[in-house]
Design the sequence.
């Protein structure tokens, strides 16, 4: 139905003075323009697509783009890959990894010479999240692997852990997305977090793109925690969506959608995104009615594990996240 963390692990990284985050005023902190954008890549197809997305968003917002590769000294495969390179032992492994990443990016990204390229040591998820915090990044972009044709399960552990620890929105992109999303389905439940998610989605939306504010209404048969979310009539739900739309820039192309719950909220959003041909889904790290303060909400976690659509996950205010931006001058 449609209408028109302080206890972060120690991480060591290659240093580049261009990546030092500028001092931010309170008003600037609400914008993506001129901020730092971190793109984490492991060389996979999805990561290469993520760098293309970061390239588009970085140019559009005049952001300082930092390309990042996490180097885990304890992982034998990573260490062997670098050690066999034709460098002497006097070179630091992180410097070698950074050089290799720069060469890799240069094949795909024309403006990579203007990027900051870093290699960080540590477990990938912790290293990425810690580096993003240190840089006061406004957005983290990384690849999201899709389900394999042979049916083998993917754990998506790194993406999930980065989303748990990040204070900035995380845009996890499949290989199908190579630029700013053209249509984003935003899962909302009418709380303050929903406004934040919608504004974060506007920041990454294509200039001519469409934002779809979608609310999933539970069927009466649902019990347990879901019963706490009263099922609204269609008219009341659309009224609440319209009030949410009025908090967003009037110039934005925004439509409204009320969904009836199918198997669960995540699947309802996924089905709607497929039907509407959206290339991204945006949700909060927590659902106000479902998650009870879990480190990463059941809806966000389920959407990551499907690996079917690019996903923007916005951290909760209660996790001390920095304010997010519309990116549209509001």
Sequence:
């Amino acid at each position: 139905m449609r209408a028109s963390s302080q206890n972060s692990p120690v991480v060591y990284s290659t240093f580049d003075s261009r990546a030092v985050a500028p001092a931010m005023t309170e008003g600037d902190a609400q914008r993506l323009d001129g901020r730092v954008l971190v793109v984490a890549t492991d060389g996979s197809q999805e990561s290469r697509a993520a760098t293309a997305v970061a390239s588009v968003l970085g140019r559009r917002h005049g952001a300082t783009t930092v390309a990042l590769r996490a180097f885990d000294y304890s992982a034998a495969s990573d260490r062997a890959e670098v050690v066999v390179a034709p460098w002497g032992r006097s070179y630091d492994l992180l410097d070698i990894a950074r050089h290799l990443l720069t060469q890799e990016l240069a094949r795909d990204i024309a403006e990579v010479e203007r990027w900051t390229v870093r290699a960080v040591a540590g477990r990938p998820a912790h290293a990425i999240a810690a580096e993003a915090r240190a840089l006061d990044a406004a957005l983290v972009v990384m690849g999201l692997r899709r389900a394999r044709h042979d049916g083998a399960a993917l754990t998506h552990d790194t993406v999930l852990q980065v989303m748990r620890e990040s204070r900035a929105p995380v845009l996890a992109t499949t290989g199908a997305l190579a630029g700013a999303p053209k249509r984003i389905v935003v899962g909302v439940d009418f709380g303050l977090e929903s406004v934040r998610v919608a504004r974060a989605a506007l920041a990454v939306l294509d200039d001519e793109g469409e934002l779809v504010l979608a609310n999933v209404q539970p069927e009466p048969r649902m019990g347990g925690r879901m019963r706490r979310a009263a099922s609204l009539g269609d008219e009341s739900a659309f009224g609440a969506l319209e009030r949410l739309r009025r908090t967003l820039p009037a110039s934005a192309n925004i439509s409204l959608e009320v969904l009836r719950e199918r198997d669960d909220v995540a699947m309802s959003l996924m089905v709607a995104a497929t039907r509407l041909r959206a290339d991204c889904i945006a949700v909060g790290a927590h659902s106000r009615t479902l998650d009870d303060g879990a480190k990463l909400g059941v809806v966000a976690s389920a959407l990551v594990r499907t690996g079917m659509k690019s996903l923007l996950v916005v951290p909760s205010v209660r996790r001390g996240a920095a304010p997010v931006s519309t990116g549209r001058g509001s």
